[in-house]
Amino acid sequence: CVKTCLSGEVRFNRARRVRNLLNNTENFAHANWTTAKAGTGVTPIKTPNYAADPEGNMTACRVQWDRGAGTTGSDYSFLSQSAGVTDNATDSVRGSVWMRTTSSDPVTLWFRVGNTTSGSIITLDSTWSRYSTAVISNTTTANAFFSIGAYSTSGSTVGDILIWKPLLESVTGQTNQNPSESVSNGVLSSPF
C-alpha cells in the first residue's frame, strides 16, 4: 500500500512515510526555536551544542526554565516551535525527542505536541532516553506545536535538561504510530 507522495519523492514498498514537520531540528540557535514565558515564568535559556548527544557529537542543546511561583495557566516557561503546518481538528501527531537531565537529580517536564495546551508529564533522569507523546488534536484547525518546559502546575518549577533530535510527525491514518527512527526535515527526492 503506497500513501500519497510528494512529486519526485522516493517510494518504498511497505515503509511508512515519515516527514519531520519541524524545521532546523539540529540547529537550536535558529529563530524557529522560540522561548515563551508569561506570568511568573522566566524566559528559558537555550544553549545549542552544549554537550555530547547519544552518538557522542557535541550537538545536544541545553534548555533551562523557571516557571516561577505561579500555578495558573498564565504561568509558564518553555522552548517551542510551531511546525508551520495546519493541524486539523481530527489529525493525530506524534512528537519524540531524546532527553536527559544535566545532573543526577530527576526533572519533571511538560511535553506538548499538536495544537492543544494539554501535554504529557514526563520525568527525566541523567540517562539519554527517547521520549514520545501523541495527541489527537481537540481544537479547530491551527498550527501544530512542539513544546518542552513547565506550564501551570505541569512540570518542575525549575528545569535544566539536554535535548537532541526532536521529531514531530503526522500519524493520522497510520496503523503503526510508533515514533520513526529515520528523521528527515522534508523528504528525499530524486535525483539523490
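^ that was protein a. below is b, sequence first then the C-alpha cells
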Amino acid sequence: FPSHDTYPKRSPGSPVPPKLSSFCAELRNMSIWSCILLETSGICFDVPALTSLRDRTSSSVTRLANRLASEYSVTVSGLGSRESLSSTVTAILDKHNLWGANLEYTKKTREISIGKNNINLLLELLPPSDPDHTLLSLVREHTAQSKLLSTYIQPLLTNKRKGILHDGRAYPAWFPLPAYLGKAYRDWETDR
C-alpha cells in the first residue's frame, strides 16, 4: 500500500477523504491480517462433516436422477443426457407455445440452451400447478446439487489441489502451504 506521503495533502478543516477515513484504514488492516492468518494457518475443515455432506448430496442427486428417469423419462446425467434435456425443453416450448420468450441459444450450434437461464425463464412463465413446472423444478434442483457436489464438495475431499488442502486445512490458492507440495517446489526440483 502507498505510504501516507503519496496521498494528496488536505488543508486543515477540510473533510477527510473517504479513502483516508478511519473506517477504510481499519478495513485495510483487517484484510491484511486476515490474509496473513489465512496463509499461515489456513481454514480448518471438519472432514467428517464434509464427508457426510458429500454422501447426503450424492444421494440427493441420485434420487433426483432416478425420479426424473422413472416419472418423466428424462435422463439428466451421463450418456444421452444433453439430448434428453434438449428434447424435453423443446417439447415444453412447443406444448405451451413459448417460442417467443427471451430464450438463450448456444453460440456454436444456435440450438436452444438447456442452461439455468432458460430453465428459470420457463419456470417463471409456467404456472406452478403445471406438471412441466414440477419437471423443470426437479431438473433445476438436480443441476444445482450436481454442481455443488462436483465443483465444491468432492474436490475438497478427494483432489488435494497441489497442497491447497492438507491435513484437513485449506490454504489460499495464491500461497499453498506447505510449499513442498506446491508447483514452485516441483519446478525448483526439476530445474536442479
